Amino acid sequence: MERKIHFISGLPRSGSTLLSAILRQNPCLYAGMTGPVAGLFNTLQTEMSGKNEFSVFITDAHRKAMLKGLIENYYDIQTPAPIVFDTHRLWCTKIAVLNELFPDAGIIACVREVPWIVDSVERLVRKNKYQPSSIFNYQAGGTIYARVDHLAEKDGLVGFAYRALKEAFFGEHTQRLMLLQYETLVSDPVRALRAVYDFIGEPRFEHDFEHVAFDDGASFDQRAGTPGLHDVRAKVSPTTRKTILPPDLFRRFANESFWRHPEAQQHTDVLIV
After folding, report:
1. Which has the closest alpha carbon to 10: 183, 160, 190, 137?
2. Region at 109 (left for phi over 0; alpha for psi -120 to 50; beta for the rest)
3. What domains can you pick out in the chain, each with its CATH number?
4. What tens digit of pLDDT does each residue of 123-151 get?
5. Which InterPro entries match (predicted)?
6. Residue 141 gets which letter from DSSP?
7. Which terminus of the chain, N or C, has less C-beta within 10 A?
8. Per-residue model confidence as pLDDT tens digits over 32-43
């Protein structure tokens, strides 16, 4: 039986770990936190390019077979589940090649109002006050303004993912892209998960949104100096809180949720839930 491959991508702190934790309640599915596959995929692409002096012996047929085999072989070892979701923010930049390798694959991009993404990262930093985070290259000190500038850089945690998402959203393979808003996932998880199953063409599954568990990320988060990065609350529900960002920083990102802008929606047929 050929395994079905799908992908989870999008913005950080926007529910990808929560979505994976819910999906894996279904015994037919495997989903996890951000893993090594996309990075290996990217490296393999580079090493099969003209950078390699032996690339004259590597055809596009070789490239296609090796890239496809990388993903399939990894999950042949990882899980017996017939349906797999691989998670990484890089996938939004790879839609064109994924469309050829896995024509039936869906990419679910998790999104969230951008100021609250920044707020969520800053909360993690303050919670782990004794451990510098890999998010900021393990550098201690600095102000919230410096941290936010770092996040928003083109290769920063938020900046890269945001640009990758826009590339996918306004690209030519939007039929394979679904935007799942964090606000929908936590306030109406039944509707959110039904939309996911309909999008990938699989039978719906009755999930337990009162007892969600995810224990895979603790050691990774500790090593990254960011304990709690992949924590998931047992009950799926929205929370109301005041932002800890200074007002000017919150305003800086208040209009950046482009997928909610009517003019953006007119230029794409991406499914937004």
Report:
1. 160
2. beta
3. 4-272 (3.40.50.300)
4. 888 887 777 677 766 676 688 899 899 89
5. P-loop_NTPase
6. -
7. N
8. 888 899 999 999
